[in-house]
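Students often ask why we bother encoding 3D structure as a string. The short answer is that it lets us treat folding as translation between two languages. Here is a chain of 403 residues written in the first language.
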Amino acid sequence: MDLPGVPSVLLDALRDAACACGEPRLALVGGVVRDLMLHRRHSRPWNGVPDLDWVVEGDAQQLAAVLLERCGPHRVRSVQPHAAFGTVALHLDEVPLDLAMARQELYPEPGWNPVVQPGSLETDLLRRDFTINAMALDLASGELLDPHGGLEDLAANRLEFLHQNSVSDDPTRVIRAARYGARLGMDLSPEARRQVERTMDAWPWTWHVGDAPEAAPPALASRLRMEVDRLLEHEPWPEALNLLADWGAMALLDPGLQDDPERMRRLHWGQRMGLPLLPVWLAGASDPAAVARRLQIPGQQQQWLNQVLPLQAWLSDQAPSRQASPGEWTMALEQRGWSPETVALMVSLRPLCWRQLLRWWGRWRLIQSPETARQLIADGWPSGPALGEELRRRRRARLDQCR
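And here it is in the second language, the structure alphabet:
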């Protein structure tokens, strides 16, 4: 086996350790195999190896222990076993490795967490998401294992699920498909599209319509959020979101996001203003606060989205006119206590007064009185409410010079 950028002595150490502890098979799996095949057979650029995922038909912790014993702590570092999952993370010659026991999975109900049991290399590949990610390189023989036609799908730029219940078992695989599609320039096969359509026809499931977050299948909502976070933070997100929209799959998060013509403009505005993209995207939902709770996004971001609808109502009924002065707008916004992030979210939604909100967010809120309280007291002002009122008056006068 030859891996660009991976020293042969590292592979030799793994092979020797597997033989020493009697592990029958040890294989490289996951995205690195897919990317290696794209590099070798389709001349795709090789971007290096961030980590190496290995599956062993046996005890991963025993393999790690033998590896440490044979190579010593100067080569094997940062050993982190996870007994509940049958995995060990470590660094060998400064290269991060993940060793995992070969497993098989059974989904007791659609969307629930799977029941995991020990298995073979073949069953471990079967539990993966797409054929292109279900290939393995056997360390001992160097043989490529491709039981589900991943090479053929790579050549056709095609994303194919492994079995007919892949999406209903785990709907987050649709988000993952958009991630890979955007990154690799691939699209769902016709059969994969039909599988997504069948799942979306049955969606939303009971938990998704007004139920409390705890009514969801365990961890499904948080898994959806984590996949979306990865999509927005690490992938070409405009392309990925366009794929989700094309597949009719945005209703996994909220039906209102599927019919959202302002999505891209809103997200680009949010990106320019330094906002996390997930709450910016969810601001286009029919009830942003409810979706934020359901997906269990960070509490601070939930607070921003909780204020979106009240701020919209205030802008419609009580806000100053667009002709009002900077001081009037600043005092009105700050008296209501809107957070800067909520105002920035509202700018991305482009209400009629978006320019006034943008100016407050970018400049007006940062302007203070030209004199401090200490300076006014030195000039003879007594401390107390009158001092605060004078500071506000002078700040407002300075703000109104911004016209």
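Translate back mentally: DSSP finds 21 helices and eleven strands in the chain. Keep this in mind for the problem set.
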